[in-house]
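PROTOCOL LOG
Step 1. Enter all chains and additional molecules of the complex.
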Amino acid sequence: MDFQVVVLAGGNSKSLTPLVSKDVPKPLLPVANHPVLYYVLHQLEESNLKDLIVVVEGEDAGLLVGAWISGTFVDRLHVEIAAVPEDIGTAGALRAISHYLTAKDILIVSGDLVSDVSLGAVAATHRRHDAVVTATLCCVPICGSSESGSSGGKDKTKKPGRYNIIGLDPRKQFLLHIATGAEIEKDTRLQEHLLHAVGQMEIRSDLMDAHMYAFKRSVLQEVLDRKDTFQSLKQDVVPYLVRSQLKSEAVLSGIPQAEEDGNEKVSFPNNQVMVSQILANASTPSFHELYSMDPDGSAQTRKTHKCCAYIASSSSYCVRLNSIQAFMDINRDVTGEADHLLSDTVIGPSPKLGTKTTVGPHCMLGEGSEMGDKCQVKRSVIGRHCRIGSHVKVVNSVVMNHVTIGDGCIIQGSVVCSNVQLQERVVLKDCQVGAGFVVTAGSEYKGESLARKEK
Amino acid sequence: MGAQKKGATARVSEDAEELARHPLQAILLADSFTTKFRPITLERPKVLLPLVNIPMINYTLAWLESAGVEEVFVFCCAHSKQVIDYLESSEWSSQPNFSVTTIESHNSISAGDALRLIYERNVIHGDFVLISGDTVSNMSLIQAFQEHKDRRKKDANAIMTMVVKQSKPSPITQQSRLGTDELFMAINPVTKQLLYYEDKAEYSKGFISLDKTLIADNPSVILHNDKQDCYIDICSQEVLSLFTDNFDYQHLRRHFVKGLLVDDIMGYKIFTHEIHSSYAARIDNFRSYDTISKDIIQRWTYPFVPDVLCGSSAIKVERQGTYRASDVTLSRSAQLGSFAFIGQGTKIGNDTKISHSVIGERCTIGSNVTIEGSYIWNNVTIEDGCQLRNAIVCDGVILKSGAVLQPGVILSFKVVVGQQFVVPAYSKVSLLQQPTQQDSDEELEYADSTSGTGELRSDKLNGAIAPDLSETASELGTGGVGYIWTVFEGAYDEEWRHSVAPIPTNKLVKLMLDKDEDEELLTQDGNVISALELKTDSDGNGSEDDNNEDSRDDYVSFEKEVEATFLRAVHENVKVDLAVLEVNALRLSYNMASVDCGGAIFYSMMKLAVESPHNSASELHRNAADIVTTWQKLLKSFLHDIDEEIEVILKFEEMCLESAKEFAALFPQILHLLYDKEILQEDAILRWADEKEGADESDKVFLKRSEKFIQWLREAEEEEEEDE
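Step 2. Run joint prediction.
Step 3. Record the structure below.
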């Protein structure tokens, strides 16, 4: 397949502090004892897409991520690590690595995506329509699904969040409108001529842009070159391409060398139309083609390009790890209802459990962890080499590696990062404890974020 | 309202059998409250106009009867007597199980008024069908009614079901094949609830804006541009009371439907019912008259086609969709093309060609006549050699030999077209003169009082046409009778949209090109929106630039006016007070601020000084001093605060750079002069100096020149402060 894959792994993330830090950049944040990046790479490997560029923000993070990948995926994937400066946005990151891109189409995946959507299917959709961009859309995850007992109470009042407003054609193949970010809170403005061309448009607010795109490389690079104010793929580039699809300014011909000086475009060769129609496998031409025809039905007078949508089936799992809540949800889901995402066995080898200690379903214990007597673990993930005392309760929580938990601790709905020490009788409820933090004996915290001061 | 609602809920709770006890009722509006069919409708109500030789209302009533409606209330207003007389004499007055009752009004000007009147009569007892008398349909109402009732049981607020049909508007003209404007509707695909309705899309400037709450409440919304509103509504009783409560609701769609959609207090809901294989359309304008006539001839409306409605013995369908009545006299050499309809008692001469046309009863058509795509009603005489293309010819018209009707012509009753006369395209010809004060409310499309009085006029007319016609004869050639109505300014361009004639190709091409340009702009606009911050910035800049552009133009002409006024004042020794008054008047008419006046007056004064003869700089200074002294009061009356004074300095600076460079050397002197004359306060001068401090070097030329003066001013000020 002539696809190049770019994984935008990110680096530091403010919304995830104190979970991420210099030592643990976001791509390496463990989700069910695997770095989050593992899920994307695993999925790519499954789809037989083995040529990747992983883009990491920051040199240090790049080294860390590179070390992990070469350790884990050696011989399995051909990965190049590209470190880019921080805060240049996704579009900026792509500009920075533009010279690596050579294939006809580029698949861009966010590194924080935990999903079982087949990338191969996205790529195939993209190819079938000869699209300029294909965006993957998935159903909006319901924060804290109903199965989760303790957090259920507060979630019931929560409406499913809205991430995007998306316009689709009647056959749900083409993307006609996309609104992200602040635009969602405004009234939706739809282009009239697009509606004229397509007849009817379905506007969905229950779909989410999964940040998994296939782009035509020539177009992507040209847009990035020409629109140097564009910061983000999701908020700038994709909406721009969607908006201008019937009045294309981007080069469309399959020939990558087409001279691109503003408006002097090589007109779409006619056989190209034929090919794309055959590829589209459609007896009726798409509205793009109809629109671009002269009334006499012959030559193409207008330049159009196609923006496709791949809608993941509602049963598939697709969540981005971009908040602490999402982190908790993903941990719970990966060990629970979406456990097919992990090819490995869920329970690691031989954790040592004391007497009368119970581990409920949907739990994961990392290798080499030890637990004392009469502990209870429910719907939680416990990392590797943790030492947990007696009479400890861990419910709906994530405990990372090398954590020491004293006797009689109660941990609910919390995240405990690596190398944390919890002394005796600590009670944590809905807290996040940053790496290396020491919680003194007997203290109780509720809804707080605890972290070591950065030196 | 409260009582009404209680009644409604109580009724809903009763079971379906209880509901079924009410006879199925329908309200038929026999007045469309528009003026689109003028001049024809000045003499005959629209519902009685023949549609393939049968009055429109018959199609509607026949359909209602077949659809199981038992009671129809026909609301008539314009020409109500004609409608009532017609219905009384027709078969409809004596049908078993189908009662037709007329409700007459003389002062209703809209559908809203009609429904309010019907509410007062208290004749509607349950769900009813609301249609107008120009609807042609063969859909089954039973399913739609059932859906409506089922919804009502679940949700008492579901008070109306609108029937819609697939119909994609033309990509070029953006109007449907019925000649109606494009329509945007947002419908929830699951519940079929109507969420948005917009038929006047030209105000949207290329964008359709959906309210954010609409999208928040509905995870999925389908926005349709490819549906046509059939104007068949299944309503609950509340609809009538709603019209009564909201006495300003006039138009069924524009006020009532949109009103309900935006009103979230009452929570009333409108739903849609889409029909797929059956036919439903409303004759809204001449184009839909043409389209629907063709549909009837091509039997899309079966069983409501002429041969069935009139009984198959009277009219026979032949091959190629030709309909011929039993006693047509057709010359052997006449050619009847496809889809032609010839009514009873019509005579057609030699070598006449007729295709895609409807010819009424008892017409006489001569030889060598060509008729294409035209609608010729009853008792029309067409003499030899006439040519008709895409025209409507009403009863009793006479076309003298050789007359030609170009596409889109409407000839109203009893018009006579003279020999060899060519009636230009899109003309509307009537024996009645065009009403001078046309509806001011054209846009709202209510017939004004003329629709009520039209009847009277036509009565008068029948008696007294003859005398005053002689003078108009020339308008339609020798021997012609009738007035050609003039088209309003600007409306001419739009005439083709609703005409019977197909849209000419060159028009389409032109539209295409226009549209392309529009879109060019739109996408550019769209690009502007791209980045959020960018959008606001560049948008803002864009509009500011435009404004500046405009206001600059305005300002230039304002300045000229002020200058002329000033010069007149100087030469004619006008008193200062009067000059002030005149400048003020100018200021108001140009919508300028007094800041601009000050600048403009000062500019005129200095210009006068420069233009007065002078040999040296000192003479120029003296000139300026004289003028300033004479007219200081005028200038002063426009300088109320410091900002305005600064404006004068800036103006002066600009002059020194551009129009009156001679002053450049005198800048500090003039400044001093203005200060001495107390036209400028020292604060203003100092503020100007401060502002200029940060400017470019090139901008500071004059500041430097007047440095001494400013220095002196500053010191004076300090001294004053010390004194205090």
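Step 4. Note key features.
Residues 3-255+268-324 of chain A form a domain with the Spore Coat Polysaccharide Biosynthesis Protein SpsA; Chain A fold (CATH 3.90.550.10).
Chain A touches chain B at residues 162, 165, 167, 170, 181-193, 195-206, 227, 229-231, 235-236, 239-240, 243-244, 246-247, 249, 291, 295, 302 (CB under 8 Å).
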